[in-house]
Specification:
By secondary structure, the protein is of the alpha+beta class. It is built from twelve helices and 16 strands. Bound molecules: (2S)-amino(hydroxy)ethanoic acid (HGY) and manganese (II) ion (2 copies).
């Protein structure tokens, strides 16, 4: 294994520097996809990659590709990537830690005068979070052939703005066709966003796969009426129905403990006035489990409970299953390079499945893919207090560096 090592201090200060793009008073980050803050951090990344000697291109989904030449540039690039967008009350590390660790790898290779055999490509994927534009992992999904470009262009946020209009507004609707080139492999570093690594005092997660997810949108329609003069037995209260459905959704996960999770994260009440019985409530459902058969059983239980509660409360309920992704496993060779790098560097590590979704889950459909996790404080993420430690980020970036160079040597040495 080569003696290369990243500059952990530079990497940490780069993460702290970019946290200002969309930074919040509480020390978190609000950098919604295709917002002005997203444009600012994109512009910053393009400048930094160009000054690191990369050729930067943008595709029709706004994905950013920063290519570093190798010795044999006819080979498909080995890619390193993640996402720059965040949740509305997100943290400094979700997504961007992976992009900046990739930038640190490029910077380290430059300083060492180390040229890989295959070219490298640092990638930012547009709209990983799926918070502003749903479904999530949208642009990596188009790259992998999961979604059609025109389907994504028409998606509207809750203010009625379309994806394509916002992409054009921030100047990132590139010419390049999305998915126009093969990747030799793809590695993504990410904070774990859960409690396992910290609880077991491990520096590195060797991610073997990802659990399945099913997303739904439910619209409950009752009848608006006066809060004071409408007797209880004459009400069609959409909020009461929604509350019972939320409780039922929580119970469905508990019924499939310990691995199932369920979340109602977004609720919109109409007319949302304190003395009007809610006539309509829109809410979202997020179900996840590592076993797709259990997830299907949870789907059946969800539909049944929503139907029964609607009848009991005398309202209408419309449930739409708007996105699913099956559980998956990463590429064995990539997993081994991640594990071997962690082992060789002396970092305590363990295999684990990702509870969160990542662009890697779609890229794994078109290229050998592996992921590296680093611990985050108290396992908290999608929260402004999201945090990790400089030594964890440096360890993760070193594993990334060595997994990528080892993969390159193993796969491409013969073509030298
Ligand atoms: O929802 C997820 O799992 C990811 O954070 N987008
Ligand atoms: Mn993420
Ligand atoms: Mn996230």
């Amino acid at each position: 294994m080569n003696k290369l090592s990243v500059n952990g201090e530079r990497l940490w200060s780069t993460i702290m520097e970019t946290a200002k793009f969309g930074g919040t008073d509480k020390g978190g980050v609000c950098r919604l996809t295709l917002s002005d803050a997203d444009r600012q951090v994109r512009d910053w990344l393009v400048r930094e990659c160009e000054s690191a000697g990369c050729a930067v291109s943008i595709d029709e989904m706004g994905n950013i590709f920063a290519r570093r030449s190798g010795k044999v540039n006819t080979l498909p690039p080995i890619a390193i990537g993640s996402h720059l967008d965040t949740q509305p009350s997100g943290g400094k590390f979700d997504g961007i830690a992976g992009v900046l660790s990739g930038l640190e790898v490029l910077r380290t290779l430059n300083e060492a005068g180390y040229t890989t055999i295959a070219p490298l490509e640092l990638i930012n994927w547009t709209n990983e979070e799926g918070s502003r534009f749903t479904p999530p992992m949208l642009a990596s999904g188009v790259f992998a052939g999961v979604f059609e470009r025109d389907f994504t262009y028409a998606i509207e946020d809750r203010d009625g703005k379309t994806f394509v209009a916002e992409l054009e507004r921030i100047g990132y609707r590139g010419e390049r066709k999305c998915g126009d080139h093969k990747l030799g492999a793809y590695f993504e570093l990410h904070i774990e966003q859960g409690p396992v690594l910290e609880a077991e005092n491990r520096m590195i997660g060797v991610v073997t796969g990802m659990q399945g997810q099913r997303w739904y949108e439910v619209t409950v329609t009752g009848q608006e009426a006066h809060a004071g003069s409408t007797p209880m037995h004459l009400r069609h209260d959409a909020m009461v129905a929604c509350a019972r459905m939320v409780e039922a959704i929580h119970e469905i996960a508990l019924n499939h403990a310990p691995l199932a999770v369920s979340t109602v994260g977004l609720v919109a009440v109409k007319p949302n006035s304190r003395n009007v019985i809610p006539g309509s409530v829109f809410f979202t459902v997020d179900l996840r489990h590592p076993d797709d058969n259990v997830l299907l059983q949870m789907d059946r239980e969800l539909r049944e409970r929503v139907d029964n509660i609607a009848k009991e409360t005398d309202v209408q309920a419309k449930l739409v299953n708007n996105w699913n992704v099956a559980s998956m496993e990463f590429n064995e060779e990539c997993i081994n390079h991640v594990r071997n790098a962690a082992e060789a560097l002396g970092y305590r590590h363990r295999d684990l499945i990702s509870g969160a979704g990542h662009d890697a889950v779609y890229i794994a459909r078109v290229a050998p893919t592996g992921m590296i996790f680093i611990p985050c404080e108290h396992g908290i993420s999608h929260n402004e207090m999201e945090n990790t430690k400089p030594e964890y980020v440096a360890a993760g970036a070193n594993v990334l560096l060595h997994a990528v160079t080892a993969y390159d040597e193993a796969r491409n040495a013969a073509t030298r």
